[in-house]
């Protein structure tokens, strides 16, 4: 079955994998030496091929290699790289005007993006939005709004959470290396509670939902006090933490308990939002309506834009001038968002994400039957991952295998990403504009990468089958 998006991009970059040189090639290697001499070592690169052009599901590097994209620049180019409607709107906008600062002299594009967000995000209540530059900035502002609207200070975040790299969002993020190590002190009044992580729940996945909920309620009550909590923030499917999907119904229980205690429920949908999981937002699948929702990444087809959307009375509780920033809701980024949202509607990209799941799932399941190192397959839509373990019974995280599979995929011209608190999750975030052909070719490469990278466990390490 061919997908219509293919036609839109076929004149830009041929949707075909081409390997001209080793990966990375000589020109990329040369540029990488310059990078190492010019760019802070703190900013590292996962796959140092230097990109010259990209469209649909293909990245073209400066050595003329064409790589299949299973990462979307970390869930950003959901509509495809340089998507036609995004390019057209951006080109028009950048020629019209580039900046005024919305807080000085406003423009229609900002308002139109907010109208679209208010319409598309979960719930049909009265909503308002505000625009920012990055996901972390949106999360910071959601916290500011929650504190201002409730008059309370404490924020509750979960194990394995990722909310960004600024000072406040580092405090919300769970993992130390590389995000927080040596960068403290961190913001206070942030409290961490256990995440409902079925695969690693100590007493087994069947007990995860109830026990995780009880532990959450008990920790908030005993250690913080409900009356001190402004908000609970959670990714409906955790991103950097390893695509952890809580048990069905668990998010709704948390949200209901928050509502009963006048605590705001903030959904961080920066990675899971905008069609990625097979719905417009991951909360839709669970029927959860957050008080505040943060979005970024997929919102603008690659331009930097982020938003907080929420109940009108919360968003309007802030005094005039209390929110903003020089570039927040830049007109070019807003034009890109309007082009991206138009594409998502016209191409029915939630449906496309479900099609991608239907193609990928059986092949990942076949792979898991062959390799017991795949401890779990999880995720929804085009946000899927496998968790790798060196011992399927003890579930010992195997970060080395994840790194080896990643390396083998890269060498074969497939751009892939790892994730997870233990570095042992191999995740898939293909652009929704990818063709079925490229998707299957990427999965062929993945199979070969497992064959290359997988070393069977030593005989004395085999699980006891008696
Ligand atoms: C990426 C991400 C962020 C941070 O977004 P930036 O644009 O990198 O600041 C926050 N929350 C989640 C869930 C993310 O995936």
From TrEMBL:
<comment type="similarity">
    <text>Belongs to the class-III pyridoxal-phosphate-dependent aminotransferase family.</text>
</comment>
<keyword id="KW-0032">Aminotransferase</keyword>
<dbReference type="InterPro" id="IPR005814">
    <property type="entry name" value="Aminotrans_3"/>
</dbReference>
<dbReference type="InterPro" id="IPR015421">
    <property type="entry name" value="PyrdxlP-dep_Trfase_major"/>
</dbReference>
<keyword id="KW-0663">Pyridoxal phosphate</keyword>
<dbReference type="Pfam" id="PF00202">
    <property type="entry name" value="Aminotran_3"/>
</dbReference>
<comment type="pathway">
    <text>Amino-acid degradation; 4-aminobutanoate degradation.</text>
</comment>
<dbReference type="GO" id="GO:0034386">
    <property type="term" value="F:4-aminobutyrate:2-oxoglutarate transaminase activity"/>
</dbReference>
<protein>
    <recommendedName>
        <fullName>(S)-3-amino-2-methylpropionate transaminase</fullName>
        <ecNumber>2.6.1.19</ecNumber>
        <ecNumber>2.6.1.22</ecNumber>
    </recommendedName>
</protein>
<dbReference type="InterPro" id="IPR015424">
    <property type="entry name" value="PyrdxlP-dep_Trfase"/>
</dbReference>
<dbReference type="InterPro" id="IPR004632">
    <property type="entry name" value="4NH2But_aminotransferase_bac"/>
</dbReference>
<keyword id="KW-0808">Transferase</keyword>
<dbReference type="InterPro" id="IPR015422">
    <property type="entry name" value="PyrdxlP-dep_Trfase_small"/>
</dbReference>
<dbReference type="InterPro" id="IPR049704">
    <property type="entry name" value="Aminotrans_3_PPA_site"/>
</dbReference>
<dbReference type="InterPro" id="IPR050103">
    <property type="entry name" value="Class-III_PLP-dep_AT"/>
</dbReference>
